Amino acid sequence: MNGDFSGLDDLFTEHPRVLSGMTEIYKYWIEEFGIDGFRIDTTRHVNMSFWQSFIPEIRAFAASKGIENFYVFGEVYDPDPNNLSRFVREGKLPAVLDFGFQSVAQKVLVENGPTRLLAQLFDQDTLYETDWSHAGLLPTFLGNHDMGRLGHFLISQFGADADEGMLMKRARLAYALMYFARGVPVIYYGDEQGFTGDGRDQDAREDMFPSLVDIYNDNRLLGSSQSTAIDNFDTNHPLYRTLVEFAALYHRHPALRHGKQITRYVKDSPGLFAFSRKDRQSGKDVLVVLNTASDADSAEFHMDGDIGAKRWVRLMGDGSVAAKGDGASVTATLPALSFGLWTSADEE
């Protein structure tokens, strides 16, 4: 009655006929409708040998139909990069949902963890390096339909009566990290309208149109005095406008999409986290600095000779960055709960 796996049927994917049949079904969708990618649910609960055959075959079929760079990412609900990366290295998937990023972003930006945790996460990116993938292909996110939304995590951490300005600053900071660090940023619908939910499966699936669900309609929203009882397609919502701005900058600077990421500064407490993104083709760089602390923070850090810019121009955000001497190091100063992006003056 309830299925074999949490209400879902458990197919005998170890059987060659099931493998062949599933492969043909997915090929049909590619051929008939020109689909250029799949999100695959519950990937970790399927035998690895299935993926080792299924993934290369459907990607090769897509390429034969003129669909290059066919994108497949799997849901592996595990925050440990060692476990996540197995499905890339062994299972041949181009990517998996980056639950590692979500977990560490929550610890640092919601729970006031040290920024060093971010560096430790990104230091493990080499686990994803294969002939068919790298960490830059991982979909990054801050919440979803199963675990709950970023807004829920913030309100749970700071209380239902927490200061609106502080919550919005933390939300913007989290989205800045997601958009400008390596990976493919993913927005969970409704987050751009400040939806919060009550966490957990089904309690984070609010309606965009006027809702009749009481457990949705009693939620406090971020950046709005409205509720889910009314239409929520507001293109003037402050988070919607923020994400539009982030997306525009993301598309304007190839370094933010494809650039090599190098950590420049971390702390063993809340505060500054700095990294640079270098466009592999043009050589252009963008410097990203975040301050996760509730007070202003400042630091000097080395650029290891990779940039060496003598003057920096701000692209977005707050604070200041100044080169020292020949540009081998910089000093960054940021207000509380803020971020900034800079590029060297000759790359304005």
Identify the notable features of this structure and list them briefly.
3-stranded parallel sheet, 2 domains, Immunoglobulin-like, 32% helix, alpha/beta, globular, 348 residues, TIM Barrel, single chain
Describe the structure.
With 348 residues, this protein is an alpha/beta fold. The chain has 2 domains: 16-250, Glycosidases (TIM Barrel); 258-347, Sandwich (Immunoglobulin-like). It is 32% helix and 18% strand. It has helices spanning 16-33, 48-64, 81-89, 99-109, 116-122, 150-158, 164-180, 214-217, 238-252, 254-258; strands at 37-40, 71-74, 95-96, 139-140, 184-185, 260-265, 272-278, 285-291, 297-302, 312-317, 320-324, 329-334, 338-344. Strands 6-7-8-13-10 form a 5-stranded antiparallel sheet. Strands 1-2-3 form a 3-stranded parallel sheet, with helices on one face. Strands 9-12-11 form a 3-stranded antiparallel sheet, with no helix packed on it. Helix 3 links the parallel strand 2 and strand 3. It is globular, with a radius of gyration of 22 Å. It starts with 15 loop residues before the first helix and ends with a strand. The model has no long low-confidence stretch (mean pLDDT 94).
Overall number of structural domains: 2
Low-confidence stretches: none
DSSP helix fraction: 25-40%
Q: What is the CATH superfamily classification of the largest domain?
A: Glycosidases
Strand content: 15-25%
CATH architecture of the largest domain: Alpha-Beta Barrel
What's the CATH class label of the largest domain? Alpha Beta
